[in-house]
# Entry
Amino acid sequence: MNPLTKMALGLMGQLRPEPSTGDGSPVLALPAPRQGGGMPLMQALARRQSQRAFNPVALQLPVLSDLLWATAGVNRPDSGGRTAPSAMNAQEVDLYVALPEGLYLYAPQAHALQRVVAADVRRVTGYQDFVDSAPLDLVYVADHARMKLVPAEQRSVYAAAAAGAMAQNVYLHAASTGLATVIRAWLDRGALAQAMGLGTNQQVLLAQTVGWPAAGASP
# Structure
């Protein structure tokens, strides 16, 4: 669906998810992330870029597992510390994964995906046309109820900083593994929040598309 059509549907309050496809398991257990190897940091930084042409083929489960762990996984089991920082360890940013099979919430401690909406919400995650068919769209959502120690007027800034760190983790992981990704802020937040079933304390911050690059796309 092209951006103009999405914008028109949004103005009419009609930008909505599509029926899910495939096996939408309520809980998707992920294999253990592969934490060894990878590209040296400076090389990954040199290759970090945004790409907007994606192969629609689904990511293999080990690839998805590694991606989610790199984004917001637990890297210090003793303390529960994660791969991305959070002020006062509020862990206020939740990572949602929009797949054809449904919308899932990433549970870092269990390293698993829990389905929260049995619908394909990918096309609602942004006005861009490629979000509809890319294999997955990540959505960063702030839960302000976890930020009681932060003044209300500063909570969005704190959460945006945490989401930015998570998004950069995705970029570096993508550069290291050959995936394509792009961070996106051009989206109908009201329509997306409704499609995701979010509450009043939850705020859609950003979305990010991930997949293998389309054939012929620049490396």
Observations:
- The radius of gyration is 17 Å.
- Helices lie at 3-11, 41-47, 61-72, 155-177, 189-196.
